[in-house]
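User:
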Amino acid sequence: MKDVLLRLLAEQVRRTSDRIVEAHHVDADTRVRRRLCELAAIYADGEREAVVPLTQDDLASMAGTSRATVNRVLREEQKSGAVMLERGRVTLLDVEAIRSRCRWVR
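Assistant: Predicted structure:
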């Protein structure tokens, strides 16, 4: 039990540290796209598409940026055909295209 708790805490510290480094060294557009890719893994349900039931304010909070930045990035992704925007949710149509526009550092 102690080992499990220790692993969980270590993972939480690692994620927090990664987000702090990301906030200082990665541009806001990339952070938004990274959060979309992470959310796709959570909401995909084995489907090619992933419906993310979060608002732009929610995404902005997760990416550490403004709603206006999230809106701009989502509009760019919509123009490229990677997302479909609806009230209170975003359908991710082409996660690989979004991922290709991210700079992953790991």
